[in-house]
């Protein structure tokens, strides 16, 4: 029997929460991408902004919009993304990963790593969304292996999104809008793109071995790990393409990756 078509998988460099309400190159790119993608039946997002002890998956029917940031304009805190959740999809995730590997969570909602992107990809907020957390105790290889077990969801119409940033060093930000990227930020962004294009996932999992540029680009790995969840979906012969490939504020890569 022929296999079902696989839904594409995405990694989105989400950057500042202000991208949710600003008209810029990134919000425009995400809106266009949402028009080009096949409409999913549901969305599973792995966001840099939900780290837990153990892996959890949201199971609420109506997830709240979480404003997990501070010192931004009041209008940003007024934003809501009222997409439904999907207890059914959460149960599928538990079945795929095993109840000993993931727990249902009824407290978390949609953090800005998810809704600030989805409000442009799918502005009608009519597609069910769940989030899968990042287990703080798991190695990069462990995250990748766990993510591989999610692959059957793609044949069931589920859009898997990793949301973070390939280069994310808040301690080195330059706030002038036209700040020149640091050489190490450009170097790592370029090197990672080369490895993604080559399908060299092993090197990307073992990112500390990529040298000083990697150390500066990934001072903490919560924004990098969602990339591995997306790359783990790549099947033999599937292409990886890029979008929104730009470095902002000198030390944040907005590069996105599409698989399939």
Rg (CA only): 17 Å
Q: How does the helix and strand content classify structurally?
A: alpha/beta
What CATH architecture do you see?
3-Layer(aba) Sandwich
Q: Give the terminus-to-terminus CA distance.
A: 21 Å
- Strand residue percentage: 15-25%
Low-confidence stretches: none
Oligomer status: single chain
Number of strands: 12
Describe what this molecule looks like in 3D:
The protein is of the alpha/beta class and 260 residues long. The chain has one domain: Protocatechuate 4,5-dioxygenase, Chain B (3-Layer(aba) Sandwich). Helices cover 31% and strands 17% of the residues. The protein has nine helices and twelve strands. The strands form four sheets. A six-stranded mixed beta sheet has the order 6-2-8-1-12-9, with helices on both faces. α1 crosses α4 and α5 packs parallel to α9. The longest helix has 16 residues. The relative contact order is 0.22. The mean pLDDT is 97.
Task: State the gist of this model.
This protein has 9 helices and 12 strands. By secondary structure, the protein is an alpha/beta fold. The strands form 4 sheets. It has a 6-stranded mixed beta sheet, sandwiched between helices. Strands 3-7 form a two-stranded parallel ribbon.
Which terms summarize this structure?
globular, 260 residues, 12 strands, two-stranded parallel ribbon, 9 helices, alpha/beta, single chain, Protocatechuate 4,5-dioxygenase, Chain B, 6-stranded mixed β-sheet
Task: Indicate the topology.
Layout: E1 9-13, H1 25-36, E2 42-47, E3 51-52, E4 55-58, H2 74-77, H3 87-97, E5 102-105, H4 112-121, E6 129-131, E7 134-135, H5 140-148, E8 158-164, H6 183-198, H7 201-205, H8 212-217, H9 225-231, E9 240-243, E10 247-248, E11 252-253, E12 256-259
Parallel strand pairs: 1-8, 2-6, 2-8, 3-7, 4-5
Antiparallel strand pairs: 1-12, 9-12, 10-11
Helix pairs in contact: 1-4, 5-9
């Amino acid at each position: 029997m022929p296999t079902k078509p696989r839904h594409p998988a995405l990694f989105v460099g989400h950057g500042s929460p202000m991208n949710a309400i600003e008209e810029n190159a990134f919000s425009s790119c995400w809106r266009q991408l949402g028009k080009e993608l096949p409409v999913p039946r549901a969305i599973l997002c792995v966001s840099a902004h939900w780290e837990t002890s153990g892996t959890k998956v949201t199971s609420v029917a109506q997830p709240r919009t979480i404003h997990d940031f501070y010192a931004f304009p009041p209008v940003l805190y007024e934003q809501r993304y009222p997409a439904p959740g999907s207890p059914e999809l959460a149960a599928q995730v538990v079945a795929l990963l095993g109840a000993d590997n993931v727990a249902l969570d009824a407290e978390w909602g949609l953090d800005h790593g998810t809704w600030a992107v989805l409000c442009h990809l799918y502005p009608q907020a009519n597609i069910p969304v769940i989030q899968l957390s990042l287990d703080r105790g798991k190695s990069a290889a462990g995250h990748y292996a766990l993510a591989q077990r999610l692959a059957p969801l793609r044949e069931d119409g589920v859009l898997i999104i990793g949301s973070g940033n390939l280069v994310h060093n808040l301690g080195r930000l330059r706030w002038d809008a036209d700040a020149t990227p640091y050489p190490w930020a450009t170097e790592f962004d370029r090197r990672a793109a080369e490895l993604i294009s080559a399908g060299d996932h092993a090197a990307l999992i073992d990112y500390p071995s990529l040298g000083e540029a990697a150390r500066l680009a990934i001072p903490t790995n919560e924004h990098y790990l969602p990339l591995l969840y997306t790359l783990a979906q790549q099947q033999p012969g599937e292409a990886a393409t890029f979008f929104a490939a730009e470095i902002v504020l000198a030390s944040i890569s907005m590069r996105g990756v599409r698989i399939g």
